[in-house]
RNA sequence: GGGCUCGUGGUCUAGGGGUUUAUGACGUUGCCUUGACAUGGCAAAGAUCGAGAGUUCGAUUCUCUCCGAGCCCA
């Protein structure tokens, strides 16, 4: 037997790592393969890679998603597109501020601002490096040399320029409005950043007294807010209380600087079955209060200050924190005999997503992006975007249906992009920087080219240089942007907006936004909002939304549940012969999971063909290995087997003397390849991978190889050509899923790497394509052929004879007449 | 409380108004060291497609209700 060109007996993790390291080590070669070359003349395909936020560990579900984004990027290259698969890192935000605060046991606002920013930057850099390593370990083919960081001047300048543009157009406004505010972290937050946590709270029934002496009972969980009460409301259909409407009632607690009574009115938002069915509306206890105040045109009270303490209006409670005030208010109500009862109940309270602190709604002057006026236009533009899977469009539209207020974009934090604006001494004019510059108004002066605008009308009054002296002492804005303000122009940035106008023209709308479904309402929504406001265009051609990675029981992975699985341990499982083991807390106690080898290729193969895009997926290393490592072994063996036969000099042109079984498998292969190409074009990873897997582990080895084995050993050129042509093209088509595996096989056996192929393999014999008469006929024989082989093998087994021994009485079906010579030899039919 | 998904052999999964046999994989069981492959090959068993009702000549597939899971929102 000739020695196979592929020397290794089987695919292994160490082999994978060797290939991988070589892959990334040669930078020139790497860039030739994967760097973005907009001048190549090919159609551009820009991927708006989600820039991961470095926080120490990278969630395995996210790593799995990134590997699928890589599959898409590679498959688009295979289809001949010029792909830009950028690598960005999202480094702005409150998380890194928290980390630094925790590490140094010191609150941000006790630092000098510049000093604190330095600390954040060095800390996040160490996390960033870990992510770069994992990205390579899972095989991402990003343009790493063009790495972008969202906290770098070039990125932030785009955010600031867009702000100035929208400010001039009037799409960004400042206003005193009720804001969701985190008093512990001292910052405003957006609707989308609020989550709800169940907590025990005390529901207090308080006795209020009308002007005519009638008593009524109102239930509230927030008695400290009585001082900010603007109205008492009942449901218009609630017959019990209609006689109260229009009456005035006494506030049961002492206040200062305000009327001591409020009027009873009607409002449909009251839940009559809740408590007594009477509701006090305060500025602001919750979102409903905001709505009622607005609808009834009431003037709100400012009851809580920026530190989360009660203000003057709270009278005796002034200066107390909200929680202390609540206790004190309950006590005072009790002493006055106004307390009817206190019931402990489970309630969901709104907290900030990042800090888990109970949030308050207070009046603040903040910056807003106007968004309610543009929803209809957005909806039209979204029609032009293809969603994968299609149903996910609905997630987005559902969220848009709930948009009722503008987007507050200013934050009172530090490690974020600064709001690029200065105010004149009389506060009537503002200074904004020119496009393309990055400024830090809290410490910089306006740069050359800055303009002076009227703060209200946005009229351009002239250049800053000329008007400087008339502005008095200017003050730089201290506030910064919500991080989504940065993230929502990632597609603009990677497509070349402002920086590469020539590329941008060809690359926008950005070809693909891949992301997880948990950030549809933030990242996706805000990005589309900006594309609409800035360019009046849909932001993307395709939006590809994957599900979440779950634990082996279908639950979300979280620190508190202790059911997380570390990504690196799965990718490294099997390296150096070390097995992997994981302790995971299941619903019925701890479970030990074990695997011998997984690695990136097996991991990617699993994610590619275990479930359809968009569904949540369960991550169980044991199953990944059992179900998919065998596939790699099988494919490797097929390639290894093929590699012992000489590779024909000309693989492009088929020899004329092909045997019927060669023509048959070529027709079948073409049918598979057609399906694969269509699937890659539709970003359908699942179907493409399934088709390849089925062919490569089924029909090809079990039937075709068995049929042509003897011909191959007899040095039959047609059989060798057919087999090699199929294996080579198979590796190309499969390279998006398993780049290192296919690279190794193709480079070793055929001297050309599958990862460099930039045209989907064409059919060698178009007359055998499945849609032709001959191709269709050959494909239709497959079932009969498989059935006959199966029956023959079974019959031999039944008879207790070896497969290479002769068997009698196995008539070849008429349909397979043309294969009779081959079948007779293969099965030793007599 | 509302919205959106989902519920298919032990496990995960495909499919989808009807071709007397519901896809594939893992697991299980049995057989096999056959000129690539025992980290393998071959084969078998295993599901009335969450429950109930309706539409229909016919439903696992459509509709409704219920039960269960998940996500999002209030």
Kindly list the characteristics that best describe this protein.
Isoleucyl-tRNA Synthetase, domain 2; Isoleucyl-tRNA Synthetase, Domain 1; 29 strands; RNA-binding; single chain; seven-stranded mixed sheet; elongated
Overview in brief:
The chain is of the alpha+beta class. The chain is 39% helix and 19% strand.
Average pLDDT reading:
89
Low-confidence stretches: none
Euclidean distance between termini CA atoms: 27 Å
Number of strands: 29
Tell me what the CATH architecture of the largest domain is. 3-Layer(aba) Sandwich
Class per helix and strand makeup: alpha+beta
- Major sheet summary line: 7 strands, mixed
Report the sheet-strand fraction: 15-25%
- Write the CATH fold name of the largest domain: Rossmann fold
| CATH superfamily heading of the largest domain | HUPs
Task: Please count the helical segments.
Answer: 25
Q: Rough shape? A: elongated
CATH domain class name of the largest domain? Alpha Beta
Helix-residue proportion: 25-40%
Number of domains: 3
Rg for CA atoms:
34 Å
């Amino acid at each position: 037997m000739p020695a196979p060109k592929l020397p290794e007996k089987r695919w292994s993790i160490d082999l994978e790592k060797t290939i991988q390291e070589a892959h990334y080590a040669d930078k020139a070669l790497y860039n030739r393969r994967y760097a973005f070359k907009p001048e190549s003349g090919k159609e551009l395909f820009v991927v708006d890679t989600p820039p991961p936020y470095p926080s120490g560990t990278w969630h395995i579900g996210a790593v799995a998603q990134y590997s699928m984004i890589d599959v898409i990027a590679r498959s688009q290259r295979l289809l001949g597109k010029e792909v830009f698969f950028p690598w960005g890192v999202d480094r702005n935000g409150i998380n890194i501020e928290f980390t630094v605060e925790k590490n140094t046991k010191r609150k941000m606002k006790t630092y000098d601002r510049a000093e604190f920013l330095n600390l954040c930057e060095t800390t996040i850099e160490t996390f960033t490096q870990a992510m770069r390593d994992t990205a390579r370990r899972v095989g991402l083919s990003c343009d790493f040399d063009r790495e972008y960081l969202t906290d770098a001047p070039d990125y932030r300048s785009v955010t600031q320029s867009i702000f100035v543009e929208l400010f001039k157009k009037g799409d960004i406004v400042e206003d005193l409005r009720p804001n969701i505010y985190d008093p512990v972290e001292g910052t405003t937050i957006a609707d989308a950043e609020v989550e709800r946590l169940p907590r025990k709270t005390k529901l207090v029934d308080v006795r209020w007294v009308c002007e005519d002496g009638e008593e009524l009972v109102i239930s509230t969980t927030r008695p400290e807010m009585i001082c900010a009460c603007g109205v008492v409301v009942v449901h218009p259909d609630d017959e019990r209380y209609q006689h109260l409407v229009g009456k005035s009632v006494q506030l049961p607690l002492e206040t200062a600087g305000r009327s001591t009574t409020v009027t009873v009115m009607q409002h449909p938002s009251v839940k009559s079955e809740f408590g007594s069915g009477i509701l006090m509306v305060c500025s602001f206890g919750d979102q409903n209060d905001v709505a009622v105040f607005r609808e009834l045109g009431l003037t709100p009270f400012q009851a809580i200050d920026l530190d989360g303490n009660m203000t003057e209006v709270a009278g005796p409670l002034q200066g107390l924190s909200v929680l202390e005030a609540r206790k004190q208010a309950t006590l005072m109500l009790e002493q006055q005999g106004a307390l009817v009862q206190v019931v402990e109940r489970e309630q969901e309270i709104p907290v900030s997503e990042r800090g888990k602190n109970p949030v308050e709604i207070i009046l603040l002057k903040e910056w807003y992006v106007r968004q309610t006026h543009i929803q209809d236009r957005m909806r039209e533009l979204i029609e032009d975007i293809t969603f994968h899977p299609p149903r996910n469009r609905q997630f987005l539209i559902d969220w848009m249906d709930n948009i009722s207020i503008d987007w507050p974009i200013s934050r009172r934090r530090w490690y974020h992009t600064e709001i690029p604006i200065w105010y004149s001494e009389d506060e009537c004019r503002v200074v904004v920087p020119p496009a393309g510059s990055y400024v830090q108004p809290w410490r910089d002066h306006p740069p050359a080219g800055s303009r002076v605008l009227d703060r209200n009308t946005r009229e351009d009054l002239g250049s800053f240089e000329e008007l400087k002296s008339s502005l008095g002492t200017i003050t730089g804005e201290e506030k910064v942007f919500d991080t989504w303000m940065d993230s929502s122009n990632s597609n603009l940035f990677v497509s070349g907006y402002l920086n590469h106008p020539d590329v941008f023209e060809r690359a926008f709308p950005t070809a693909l936004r891949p992301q997880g479904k948990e950030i549809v309402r933030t990242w996706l929504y805000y990005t589309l909002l900006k594309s609409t406001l800035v360019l009046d265009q849909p932001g993307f051609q395709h939006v590809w939304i994957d599900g979440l990675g779950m634990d082996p029981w279908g639950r979300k992975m979280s620190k508190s549940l202790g059911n997380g699985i570390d990504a690196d341990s799965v990718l490294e499982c099997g390296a150096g012969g070390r097995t992997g083991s994981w302790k995971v807390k299941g619903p019925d106690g701890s479970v030990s999971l074990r695997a011998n080898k997984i690695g990136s290729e097996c991991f990617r193969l699993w994610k590619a063909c275990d479930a359809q895009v968009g569904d949540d997926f369960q991550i169980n290393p044991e199953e990944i290995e059992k179900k998919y490592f065998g596939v790699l072994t099988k494919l490797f063996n097929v390639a290894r087997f093929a590699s012992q036969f000489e590779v024909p000099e000309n693989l492009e042109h088929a020899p004329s003397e092909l045997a019927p079984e060669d023509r048959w498998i070529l027709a079948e292969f073409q049918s598979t390849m057609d399906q694969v190409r269509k699937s890659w074009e539709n970003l359908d990873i699942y179907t493409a991978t399934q088709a390849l897997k089925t062919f490569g582990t089924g029909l090809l080895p079990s039937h075709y190889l068995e049929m042509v084995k003897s011909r191959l050993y007899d040095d039959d050129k047609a059989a060798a050509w057919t087999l090699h042509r199929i294996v080579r093209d198979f590796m190309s088509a499969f390279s998006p899923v398993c780049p290192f595996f296919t690279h190794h096989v193709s480079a070793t056996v055929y001297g050309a790497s599958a990862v460099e192929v930039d045209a989907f393999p064409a059919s060698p014999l178009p007359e055998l394509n499945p849609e032709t008469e001959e191709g269709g006929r050959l494909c239709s024989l497959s079932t009969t052929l498989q059935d006959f082989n199966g029956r023959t093998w079974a019959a031999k087994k039944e008879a207790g004879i070896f497969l290479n021994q002769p068997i009698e009485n196995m008539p070849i079906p008429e349909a397979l007449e043309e294969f009779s010579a081959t079948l007779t030899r293969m099965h030793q039919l007599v």
